[in-house]
Design brief:
Keywords: GTP-binding, Magnesium, Metal-binding, Nucleotide-binding, Transducer
Largest sheet: 5 strands, mixed
Number of helices: 18
Distance between the termini: 63 Å
Bound molecules: guanosine-5'-triphosphate, magnesium ion
Number of strands: 10
Structural class: alpha/beta
GO molecular function: G protein-coupled receptor binding; G-protein beta/gamma-subunit complex binding; GTP binding; GTPase activity; metal ion binding
Strand order of the largest sheet: 7-8-4-9-10
Helix content: 40-55%
Protein name: G-alpha-domain-containing protein
Shape: globular
GO cellular component, one term: cytoplasm
Order of helices and strands: EEEHHHEHHHHEEHHHHHHHEEEHEHHH
Radius of gyration: 30 Å
Strand content: 5-15%
Length: 480
């Protein structure tokens, strides 16, 4: 009997051999088994963490035949074995040996990863969807992994164009709905003349086509959670069109194909004709998009319908002239602003210190929407610190995945759960109250905080005061 492939000291499995003498069992370690020919039974513990596949494989490996083994009789070939049976048995044994080698290889690789990670500072980014986790990671990478950042920057072009086109389509969609309301004679519907109808007819099919083209190029899939219908008309609605996501593997492949110096400059057209096609389609209708975006009636209609465009919508729509030229190359700020929903766990290593002996940082970025949060837990006992992103501007917004829930409320509940998690009791927690620029815009637009957060009371509707109050909410949990 051989035990190759099972390494109890890795916690992957444990083998015990037991001899029952009277009512006192004697337990031996696997290694001492050969020295105890009186062993009567074998207990094999294959913990759940091994997973069904490796457990099956492990059992296959344990029960290999070994003629020197006193228990070989269990697995010994039959004395009347035919040549066919012998060939089949040898094939099975060879396969088992292959599996054993494979497990050994995996364990060696795991050991190497663990050793490499031992001296690292590990940080987990947490927060609800769209709270800014990936943006924070991008900021770290932009600053501390500059070479890779510059190498990848050009690959964000398709995502940026997609962000732009999706915002334009959201506006057109709202315009269509408002026109339908007008047709149904709803009291508060805006009245549009042919001028607007022509825009809609001209732009809608074109931009839908560009959106599909870019999504196909990126391997994007629609959000698996359909945004819910607006049930709270005073708050900013979740967006009406499903958000897209790109699995990191697909996205990395895309980065791979577009990375490197050959991407920038003249070979771009040859490498990525789809991006050029999309750019030209956008260039052809950019004046129409600009006119609509800057139109006072359209702006009033968006405000009335409480349409929530993406946070970077105005940045990209205002920059449409720059974005829609053939040789457009994304800037640092464009990449920071680009929105790409995170679906699986992304890991990035960087060095924040010039000193080569200083520990490296490993940052984990996770998806923040409700369906993604179950994937956070396995990382809790791995990391030294958690950075929690809590947008300070979201007091009047609702979750995309559940339009009944206010985003500030969700963020507070999440933060409280993180603070009280036993698994994180020895982890450094860092709270980032971000999106202050968006809060400033909302205050400038006259949005009253106490309308959405009654506990704000009669405090002045000013950015500084709101920041103070929100910090209080997050840091003094009993007042939440
Ligand atoms: N104006 C402004 N926009 C921000 C800020 N932080 C993040 N954003 C924008 O917010 C949007 C969402 O940010 P992400 O970093 O993708 O959010 P996330 O938390 O990673 O979201 P998920 O991956 O869905 O969990 C992006 O368009 C960012 O550019 C900020 O401080 N100010
Ligand atoms: Mg993200």
């Amino acid at each position: 009997m051989t035990f190759q492939g099972l390494k109890p000291h890795h916690g992957s499995s444990l083998i015990c051999l037991t001899r029952v003498l009277g009512d006192r069992p004697i337990v031996h370690k696997a290694g001492s088994y050969r020295k105890n020919p009186s062993v009567l039974s074998i207990i094999i513990v294959l913990p759940r963490s091994l997973g069904p596949y490796r457990r099956r494989m492990a059992l296959g490996v344990i029960f290999q035949h070994d003629t020197t083994d006193p228990l070989a009789v269990i697995t010994a070939p039959s004395p009347n074995e035919s040549p066919e049976e012998k060939a089949a048995r040898e094939e099975r044994e060879a396969e088992a040996r292959g599996i054993s080698d494979l497990i050994d290889e995996e364990l060696r690789a795991e050991r190497a990863v663990r050793k490499k990670e031992e001296g690292m500072v590990k940080i987990l980014l947490l927060g609800q969807g769209e709270s800014g986790k990936s943006t924070t990671l991008k900021n770290f990478r932009m600053r501390f992994a500059r070479d890779k950042w510059i190498e990848e920057r050009a690959s964000w072009r398709a995502v940026i164009l997609l962000n732009l086109v999706r915002s334009a389509n959201t506006i057109l969609h709202a315009l269509s709905q408002e026109m339908d309301d007008e047709q149904f004679g709803l009291d508060d519907a805006f009245t549009f003349d042919d001028y607007y109808r022509r825009y809609r007819l001209r732009l809608s099919p074109l931009l839908q086509g560009v959106e599909s083209n870019l999504k196909r190029l990126l391997g994007a899939q629609p959000e698996e959670i359909e945004p819910q219908k607006q049930t709270h008309p005073i708050t900013l609605s979740p967006r009406t069109s499903p958000e897209f996501f790109v699995r990191s593997r697909t996205w990395r492949n895309f980065l791979q194909t577009t990375r490197g110096p050959e991407f920038s400059g003249c070979s771009l057209e040859q490498d990525l004709p789809d991006i050029i096609d999309s750019t030209e389609a956008i260039a052809n209708c950019k004046d129409d998009i600009k006119t609509l975006w800057r139109d006072d009636i359209v702006q009033a209609m968006l405000a009335k319908r409480r349409i929530r465009l993406e946070d970077s919508a105005s940045f990209f729509l205002d920059a449409i002239d720059r974005l829609s030229v053939r040789d457009y190359e994304p800037t640092d700020e464009d990449v920071l602003r680009a929105r790409l929903r995170t679906l699986d766990i992304q890991e990035h290593e960087l060095r924040v210190d010039d000193d080569a002996d200083a520990p490296k940082w490993k940052i984990y970025d996770v998806g923040g929407s409700r369906t993604q949060r179950h994937a956070w837990l396995p990382y809790f006992d791995k990391v030294n610190a958690v950075i929690f992103l809590a947008p300070i501007s979201c007091f009047d917004e609702r979750l995309i995945e559940d339009s009944r829930v206010n985003r500030l409320e969700d963020s507070l509940i999440l933060w409280r759960a993180i603070c009280s998690s036993k698994l994180l009791s020895r982890t450094i927690l860092i709270l980032f109250l971000n999106k202050i620029d968006i809060l400033e815009e909302k205050i400038r637009d006259g949005i009253m905080v106490n309308r959405f957060l009654p506990s704000y009371g009669h405090r002045p509707n000013e950015t500084g005061e709101v920041v103070k109050c929100k910090s209080f909410l997050f840091l003094v949990p009993q007042h939440v």
